[in-house]
Amino acid sequence: MHIILLSGGSGKRLWPLSNDVRSKQFLKMLPGTEGQQESMIMRVYRQIMTADSGASITVATGKKQVSSIRNQLSDKVNICVEPERRDTFPAICLAASHLRDVQGVPEEEAVVICPVDPYVELPYFRALCELAELAGDGKSNLVLMGMEPTYPSEKYGYIIPTDRQRISGVSTFREKPDLETAKEYLRRGALWNGGVFACKLKFLLEKAHEQISFVDYKDLYEHYGEQKKISFDYAVVEQEKSIRVLRYAGTWKDLGTWNTFTEAMEGNTLGRVTLNETCENTHVVNELNVPILCMGCKNMVIAASSDGILVSNKEQSSYIKPFVEKMTGQVMYAEKSWGSFTVLDVQENSMTIKVVLLPGHSLYYHSHEHRDEIWTVISGRGTALIDGEKRTVAPGDVISMPAGCKHTVFADTELEIIEVQLGREISVEDKQKYELPGDCGLIREN
Amino acid sequence: MHIILLSGGSGKRLWPLSNDVRSKQFLKMLPGTEGQQESMIMRVYRQIMTADSGASITVATGKKQVSSIRNQLSDKVNICVEPERRDTFPAICLAASHLRDVQGVPEEEAVVICPVDPYVELPYFRALCELAELAGDGKSNLVLMGMEPTYPSEKYGYIIPTDRQRISGVSTFREKPDLETAKEYLRRGALWNGGVFACKLKFLLEKAHEQISFVDYKDLYEHYGEQKKISFDYAVVEQEKSIRVLRYAGTWKDLGTWNTFTEAMEGNTLGRVTLNETCENTHVVNELNVPILCMGCKNMVIAASSDGILVSNKEQSSYIKPFVEKMTGQVMYAEKSWGSFTVLDVQENSMTIKVVLLPGHSLYYHSHEHRDEIWTVISGRGTALIDGEKRTVAPGDVISMPAGCKHTVFADTELEIIEVQLGREISVEDKQKYELPGDCGLIREN
User: DSSP character for B250?
Assistant: First the structure.
């Protein structure tokens, strides 16, 4: 099965754990295998491979998520990167041309498309396999998965099927209805539209070429910014006559708010947390190294990360977005393809961060125009390249890099470095990248 | 007026802002002059000097508080340091001999003794001046201040006066009564015993020599650890026949718990805090650099520091102590006589801290046996002394000090340094102090 996972979202609703560079699908807060916590994307990957060990996964996403995906799934998935965000129709067109032109997938093969972020169980992925089979049988151009509603929701779109069979035709689509209309839909056997569907790759490419003028993946990638923002539902699904829907009745939750997210947690706490005996229905997630003590908390969600601290009544937590939008500060922690960084101290003319490089990984070879940097290695071993000169590094080693100095470091074992940045204009934009010198004997793997 | 301020307390009840080295009297959370926040001890100092600009203050305290007192009040007060904690009778005897033998105070002069931590207003200090005058008139050996009760408290000791006059004799003392007994005391015009009294220095010294065999301050200091733990109330006040009490009816609050402490705050928040419109009767103190967002919090106190985070219902917050006692971790922030330090990162074999040195101050000249240290200066200017060699330091300078290397730094302007400590056994005990070399031209002022 070929599967395109749509990975979007700015992640403001799960602040302070999610931020601009870490969407909710990357939060390692769900119970995984062997007692480890896993993220939504790690969970989805594991579930897909359990349902179909031969599945080929392509994650369609924006630039900001590439590091997190590589950090959590390494090279086990293909990544199709949108140069900028353009809604689902252009994103799916780009992913479809990636499958054809980059991965060489035959156009007759079936492709399943689904969002990365619903919280689901294994039967959902078994249903996706069935969806791929239905797409392959050629009896309709498009096959949707319709979720059996559990209540008359006003926040979902509805698929109105032609009958109540497990697999049926589609009569029409309806956007978010009011409560009374939603109740009427449920009486008529309507299904929630979860944005999950399957078709042959050929069909996706036909629709892409019908509405966008492009030659191949490379051409579409280069002109991606010119595409208009339009959803695949609107551009394709709702226009299509040759269409079927498969009913799915298992777990399907949107973990988009703290209130719903905490329901999927295994216990009430993650990290260093003490709840006294008078706490009730309270969930606490602590990513900091210091303890949280909660006393007499009722129906609350508390979350702490290096970006900030949320203390909220559970019901109120759904209204977080406008407050978080005002809090655009320094990103204090980020996962990168090569490891992670944590901001330890910010002053007017300096910033101190901790860099963790995973074994076998390295930074880009780069320099800064407006700041000096000083590395102090605190653990691990590796090789630094400083203005073309190689040197091995170990705990206690110090390297000073004035502005303009080209530098990188390769980790042999996990390498931890305290980096002090000094300058009047410290900014992530101040970074020039270089090719590694051909004779240095170092090769970047990531 | 000579005044002995008793400064004790381990500060567990106001965790995470107070800790072993920072008792509640040093928390800068009260509204001060010119829009600045001040601590209880800063507030008490300011109030005493307003009531009596000629007052001479001696703080009787333990070793751990000396740095904080010097940091907040510099050399404006005398400090009488108990080598170890022995309750109030030995502490007051030590302070009395300090007044006589170190400060040269004549024995005929009156001395007022009071705890540093009640939250009071200026009339309280005017009453202290009156108390000193009464002690000076020689009509009784001891004069107490009795607080007019505002409710039948079960947690205070009571003074039962001989009559209801403003100044009266004392009939007897009673310890924490039950509610019904407390009500009866109030009907009889009883007063709360706040541990505030005045007498001539001579009287204190007589009582000291009666019960402790010692020659002078130095002698008592050296044998201080042998003294038994006994309160001044028990050893002296309750035995004394020649005694009067002055009624005081103004503000007198114990800010010993979060519930009472927050009542003395000017607004509901300190630091980077957002309360949404659904929060009610909630106080938040944030010493961290990251924002706290509170939504739908009712009757809560939230406090965050580099030691930890408390999220508590206000009433529950009085039961914090046993939980905090279990959380004996690394002290993450401390005020020192020379400035402060903040722990930024703790790993198995390393610790990264930020050191802030105040202008004109310096560290002890010292070395460590089991760890290497690396300094990176991030702001300010000063002079370092490394194994006897002087060098000026400025932002960007790096100094590596292997184990055994003697080092210190003197700040010309406020100096900020990132210090990386590397070793298998990092501990505050691993510190050898040295005299500065006579020819180095540097003198420690603090």
Answer: S
- pLDDT of the residue at B328: 66
Q: Helices B40-51 and B66-73 sit at what angle, rounded to 10 degrees? A: 50
Residues 6+ apart with CB under 8 A from B76: B45, B57
Q: Residue A292: list chain B partners with CB under 8 A.
A: 308-311
Side chain identity, residue B196: V
B290 touches chain A (CB under 8 A): yes
Are A6 and A115 contacting, i.e. CB atoms less than 8 angstroms apart?
yes
Under 8 Å between Cβ of B421 and B341: no
- Give the residue from chain B lying closest to A284, CA to CA: B311
Determine, for residues A290 and B306 on separate chains, whether the beta-carbon distance falls below 8 Å: yes
Instruction: List all residues of chain A from 381 to 440 with a beta carbon under 8 Å from chain B.
Output: 395-396, 398, 400, 416, 418, 420, 422
Q: Is cis: bond before A118, omega within 30 of 0?
A: no
Where are any strands of DSSP class E within B181-307? 191-200, 243-248, 252-254, 269-270, 273-275, 283-286, 292-295, 300-305
* Shortest alpha-carbon distance between residue A328 and chain B (Å): 10
Please report which confidence band the pLDDT of residue B30 belongs to, taking 50, 70 and 90 as the band edges.
Answer: confident
Strands A389-393 and A339-347 come out as unpaired
| Interface touch A309/B329, C-beta < 8 Å | no
User: Is the per-residue pLDDT at A446 higher than 60?
Assistant: no
Reported as a single tens digit per residue, the pLDDT across B9-19 is 767 889 998 87
Residues of chain B with Cβ-Cβ distance to A310 below 8 Å are 292-293, 295
Whether A391 and A360 have beta carbons less than 8 Å apart is answered as: no
Cβ of B395 and A422 within 8 Å? yes
> Can you tell me whether residue B319 is helix, strand or coil?
helix
Per-residue model confidence as pLDDT tens digits over B50-96: 999 999 999 999 988 898 899 899 899 999 999 998 999 999 999 99
Residue A206: Cβ within 10 Å count: 15
Q: What is the pTM of this model?
A: 0.81
Long-range contacts of B271-276 (CB under 8 A, 24+ apart): B271/B304, B274/A323, B274/A326, B274/A327, B276/A316, B276/A319, B276/A323
Question: For A113-146, how does the pLDDT look when each residue is reduced to its tens digit (9 = 90+)?
Answer: 999 988 999 999 999 999 999 999 989 999 999 9
Residues from chain A contacting residue B311 (CB–CB below 8 Å): 292-295, 297, 300, 302, 311
| pLDDT digits 0-9 by tens, B264-283 | 888 999 999 999 999 999 99
